[in-house]
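Hi team,

As requested, here is the filled-out complex form for the uridine-5'-diphosphate run. I kept the field names the same as last time so the parser does not choke. Let me know if anything looks off before we queue the next batch.

— J.
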Amino acid sequence: MKKIVTVVGARPQFIKASVVSEALKGKSEEILVHTGQHYDANMSEVFFEELKIPHPAYNLGVGSGTHGRQTGEMLIGIEEILLNEKPDVVLVYGDTNSTLAGALAASKLHIPVAHVEAGLRSYNMRMPEEQNRILSDHISSWLFCPTQTARENLKKEGITNGVSVPGDVMLDSVLHFRAVALENPEKRKIYETLGIIPKGYRLATLHRAETTDGGEAAIERIFDAFEQLPDRVVVPIHPRTRKLAEEALARRGYRNIQLIDPVGYLEMLLLTSGAKQVLTDSGGLQKEAWFMEVPCVTLRSETEWLETLEGGWNVLAKLETADILEKALHTQPDPSAREAQPFGDGHASERIAETVSA
Ligand code: UD1
Ligand code: UDP
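And here is what came back:
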């Protein structure tokens, strides 16, 4: 059996790893390393519990910090583990600082890297995520692309060896856990708890550096738009944005915005599928909205997930009140634009597990 060290650290990575870890059972020995990039109970522990992810063998407890400090501390910790464990493969997900640290530590020790969600590009090098994904892709031996577009992006950079398109593991996780959530009466109470009814509210999340770096003015431009929408906007607030959001609420007294703590994945799937529309700067949530046929307004100037733009199911909005309002109110998705299945068949994790275990 192969020995695989998986490096995770941020919320979306726990969700992606949950389905691949399950598929690896009986095929490889997996050792889970949590960098500690996300550490609040509702940003980390809740996912391990709800999604039945094995307890990490190591938690580096790195926590928050500047990019250099955070990534550097992860590198030091991961290198030590890799020297002790001597795995055959290091598995990393997505585009966070934890991804880059895992890939770089392994690559320097000549341990093959498997990158899940390879080949995504925004072509905006100011994004920390774009830097992390390009660097990780270029030092990976297995590049698991969620879509054909991602494969094409890699080809443009001369990367063809080790590239495959198993599909998107997030589709696997939505298909699996949405059914789990629907069968759980406790989780389904979320609507009642928040005083909302399905299709009677919009759902928003905000955490990207491009959004929060704009400070008070940027958050007010966004919230001014939310305030004018005809349905309540529920906002599970990422800890990065909490202070900005709470202060904006206190200053401006918005009445149409319902800030709530981050929720677990099962409740989030229920909130997303029940929403009339999603407004977000999240990569994962854009796609989940698409999977569940909920129209999405992406609060960014570009997206890596071009497939979601087909037929207007996802539209980009500038971080300006008028543009957000215009897109939120007047975009009509085309139901006939959903025939293609660009994200695979919901079995990406099994293909990835087979390949890395062979
Ligand atoms: C990170 C990823 C981003 C991803 C996001 C998923 C990088 C560069 N960015 O962004 O790509 O979309 O995770 O959610 O890796 N904080 C807490 N508690 C926590 C975690 C964070 O309070 O458990 C606060 C801290 O103030 C911290 C800030 O959030 O400084 C940002 O956290 P960080 O992990 O650096 O980046 P994210 O914005 O979460
Ligand atoms: N998510 C969650 N609870 C929340 C907000 C988001 O479970 O309160 C899930 C969401 O459904 C998606 C993932 O977290 O699966 C996306 O993570 P995030 O937006 O933090 O990061 P990104 O995808 O932008 O990297």
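Two things worth flagging: DSSP finds 16 helices and 13 strands in the chain. The two ends are 9 Å apart (CA to CA).

Thanks,
J.
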